[in-house]
Design goal:
By secondary structure, this protein is mostly helical. It has twelve helices and no strands. The chain folds into two domains: 95 residues, no CATH class; 156 residues, no CATH class.
Length: 287
């Protein structure tokens, strides 16, 4: 059996080595924001300390307490490297915040659309008004809804898969980027390459949710958000995906029967782009 003293020394050396690596990552001025957060996350994941590994899975992490814990466990001297603490804190906000965002987005997704909820109904009617300004919606249950891409007389049935998240995404897009949204609506009416805008929008919500829960969006959020990402940041990603999918779809010059195939290719393309730790999903449209 190995000598207990040797085991203790080796354990201490491992802690010091990991502490040095973490310190080097945080204090490297040449390292960009996104790649740095990825490296901090990787360091915590491979740490020998169970307490540090739990930071990657625990809910409601006390960030300041976590920073103090890391300083203690890793034997880092903040006096020698004063930039270590604020940089580490921001990385932890990004890392833990990403997990919190998944929870927040999923909670909205699980809310079922209800025609008896006046707030839900108001959002739906606002969606119509933003996409069809000046056009009167003759009644709540009406075939007019197909003009903006719903499947039938009552849009409520189309939100079953993504819940209220699908509606919130669509409404954010048509409100913040109305010109772009109405451009997409025009494309959706193309006689040969048209598609159902609202239904495609709900499918894009599903795509964005998969990219989020699969960890693909870490690169984008780590590079663009200094701290905890919020629901609005997820909505912005959705807007990017909507606009880019429309461009991709029109370039493919296909028909709606090939939708699932085209969508799968597009999602694979986005996932590959996000493998780059410095990746950012830049919007190519303006409000």
């Amino acid at each position: 059996m190995p000598d207990c003293g040797i085991v203790l020394i080796m354990s201490c050396l491992q802690i010091l080595i990991f502490g040095f690596k973490l310190q080097r990552v945080c204090c490297n001025k040449k390292l960009q924001q996104g790649p740095r957060a990825h490296k901090v996350e990787r360091s915590l994941k491979h740490s020998k300390s169970a307490a540090l590994k739990r930071l990657l899975v625990d809910d409601d992490v006390n960030i300041d307490g976590a920073v103090e814990k890391i300083i203690s466990i890793k034997s880092v001297s903040p006096e020698v490297h004063p930039q270590f603490v604020p940089i580490l804190r921001m990385c932890l906000l990004q890392i833990c915040g990403y997990r919190q965002l998944i929870t927040e987005v999923d909670s909205v997704r699980k809310i079922k659309y209800s025609s008896e909820n006046p707030d839900h109904e108001k959002m739906l009617l606002t969606l119509w008004e933003k996409l069809m300004p000046g056009v009167l919606l003759e009644s709540r249950i009406n075939k007019q809804w197909t003009e903006i891409g719903f499947q039938g007389d009552d849009p409520m049935t189309d939100f079953r898969g993504m819940g209220l998240l699908g509606l919130e995404n669509l409404l954010f897009f048509v409100t913040q980027y109305n010109d772009a949204a109405r451009q997409l609506l025009s494309h959706s009416h193309h006689p040969k390459y048209g598609y159902s805008l609202a239904i495609v929008g709900i499918n894009i919500t599903g795509m964005a949710f998969q990219l989020l829960t699969g960890g693909h969006l870490k690169s984008h959020f780590y590079n663009t958000v200094k701290g905890r990402p919020k629901l609005e940041h997820f909505h912005q990603v959705y807007c990017y995906l909507m606009y880019e999918f429309d461009r991709y779809w029109m370039a493919e010059k296909t028909n709606i029967m090939e939708f699932n195939i085209v969508k799968a290719r597009f999602q694979k393309k986005i996932a590959q782009k996000l493998r780059n730790k410095s990746a950012v999903l830049h919007r190519r449209f303006v409000s």
